Amino acid sequence: MPFKERDSVLIKNYSGHVLGLGVIVNVNEFREPNMRYAVDAQFYRDDYIFVGEGNLELFEEVDEEQMEAEYKRIADMIESEGLSYAISEGYVYSSMTHDVELKVAIDKAQMALDVIEEKLSKYMY
What we know:
The protein is α+β, with helices and mostly antiparallel strands. The protein folds into two domains: 8-58, Roll (SH3 type barrels); 64-123, no CATH class. It has three helices and five strands; from the N terminus they run E-E-E-E-E-H-H-H. The chain has helices at residues 64-81, 83-88, 100-120; strands at 8-12, 18-27, 37-41, 49-51, 56-58. The protein has a five-stranded antiparallel beta sheet. Strand 3 and strand 4 (49-51) form a beta hairpin. The radius of gyration is 17 Å and the shape is flat.
């Protein structure tokens, strides 16, 4: 899906984890596909970042009622399964919410749990 200037977008790394929110400031069809979009990212203030379409997702704002329902669903899952199990086993994932800060936190938690498991796997089970 082509994006246009002034679109609010979620910026993802190559693993698909959300890095944060940004606004497209320029689209240049003559750039390499993986650098076509200049984005003003909230998490990187030094300059614009240049990314491809695969690193972007259109940001949709939702009303407070829907956000509350998303929070409740995630909280219920964590309460029933435990935080680390819910995240590591995929019961809780970043696309379950529109809250950008929570998306980033869930993705970071998943990456951290992956590192812990990788480093300690030969000592566990």
